[in-house]
Design a protein that fits this description.
Elements (H helix, E strand, L loop, with lengths): L7 H11 L4 H8 L4 H4 L10 E4 L7 H10 L7 E4 L11
Parallel strand pairs: 1-2
């Protein structure tokens, strides 16, 4: 998300670029908190993921990759037609 995300992620990316974090250096720095690297630690029985189909902060493909990597059942991943901020009105 930091490399390709919009809005908030783009602001973070810009700040990191200004500090010299791009390409492989950026990937190495964020790998310690990369959700997909840590997803195997998530208990799929006690975890629910809420995502939005129009989200530009956490893109739907990123949420889906996390759900798959964490082995979440379909009924543990709620997807709504909204953006990052308006999704709350569905819940």
């Amino acid at each position: 998300m930091i490399e390709n995300g919009a809005r908030d992620a783009a602001n973070v990316r810009h700040s990191l670029e200004q500090a010299g974090f791009t390409g492989d250096r950026l990937r190495a720095a964020v790998s310690v908190v990369e959700p997909l690297r840590l997803a195997h630690r998530i208990d799929p029985e006690t975890t629910w993921l809420f995502s939005a189909s129009l989200d530009t902060v956490v893109p739907p493909r990123s949420a889906l990759k996390l759900a798959q990597a964490a082995h979440l059942a379909a009924d543990h991943h709620f997807q709504v037609e909204a953006n990052h901020y308006t999704a709350i009105f569905h819940f």
